[in-house]
Amino acid sequence: MAIASTAPVIEEEIGGQVRRLVLRNAEIERFEAQYSIGIFELFDQLFGRGPAPQLRHVRDLVALAMVGGGMSDRAADAAMAEVGPEHALRLREIAQRVLGVAFMPSVLVPAGKKKLGSRKASPAE
Q1: How far apart, in whole angstroms, are the C-alpha atoms of residue 8 and residue 36?
Q2: Percent of the residues in the chain that have a pLDDT greater than 70, as a whole number
Q3: Pairwise CA distance, residues 107 & 113, whole Å
Q4: Would you give the DSSP letter of residue 107?
Q5: 23 burial type by CB count under 10 A (0-12 exposed, 13-18 middle, 19+ buried)
Q6: What are the pLDDT digits (tens) for 53-101?
Q7: Which candidate, 43, 49, 52, 58, places its Cα nearest to that of 88?
Q8: What is the pTM of this model?
């Protein structure tokens, strides 16, 4: 079994290169340990249910997703250092997608494709 195919992975262009982004428990816990904000609070902020998120939170979440995708901490920091404030709104959109896929990986399954163990409800149900 290939491990890479089991994780909800997205790819985004960051700093002129396509990067693999994965947010797992380890990255989420690192984020929560670094800041006094929980991941669900950040989720609400990113999706307009609360005050706007701080840019440092958005940038660090995206950097941690790059680490989850296989990049070293140092390389992720360097990649984010190359991304200027003119990309802040795009980074916020990427952070939304990263968290969305982490919490709801089924969004990556093409419409109509049946997942293992799932079944369609019959009209009688």
Answers
A1: 26
A2: 79
A3: 11
A4: G
A5: buried
A6: 999 999 999 999 999 999 999 999 999 999 999 999 999 999 999 999 9
A7: 58
A8: 0.80
